[in-house]
Amino acid sequence: MSGVAPGWTGAVLAVLVRPALWPTAVRQALLLAPARWWRRRPYLPLPDRAYLAFRLETMYGAGAPAPAPGDVVAYLRWCRSSRRSLR
């Protein structure tokens, strides 16, 4: 899968096979994207690399290249249920 950082392919595929999580994934991507992301390359709402590195290190320890696909799915489900509980 081109354009996806190494190690993230499994997480992306785990979300792609769960269409119910697509709206949550898009929402979270937009929430985590830096302000005015459309003005900088690659013109995608991708989270800041330093923020992602920090989050990966706090979860997996130093040197983790990407989250486990199951953890990404669990995170998105948690985001979805948290949002629903606020309604």
Run of helices and strands: HHHH
User: How many angstroms separate the termini?
Assistant: 37 Å
The major beta sheet can be summarized as: none
Write down the overall geometry.
globular
The helix-and-strand class reads: mainly alpha
Helix fraction bin: 55-70%
User: How confident overall, as mean pLDDT?
Assistant: 89
> Treating each run of at least 4 consecutive H or I residues as one helix, how many helices?
4
Radius of gyration over all CA atoms, rounded: 13 Å
Would you report the number of β strands?
A: 0
Estimated share of beta-strand residues: under 5%
Unreliable parts: none
Structure, described:
The N and C termini lie far apart (37 Å). The model has no long low-confidence stretch (mean pLDDT 89). α1 (9-16) crosses α4. The protein has helices at 9-16, 22-32, 49-60, 69-85. Helix content is 55%, strand content 0%. By secondary structure, it is mostly helical. It has 4 helices and no strands.
Q: What are the defining features of this structure?
A:
mainly alpha, 4 helices, single chain, 87 residues
Summarize the structure.
By secondary structure, this protein is mainly α. The chain has helices spanning 9-16, 22-32, 49-60, 69-85.
Write the layout of secondary structure elements.
Elements lengths: L8 H8 L5 H11 L16 H12 L8 H17 L2
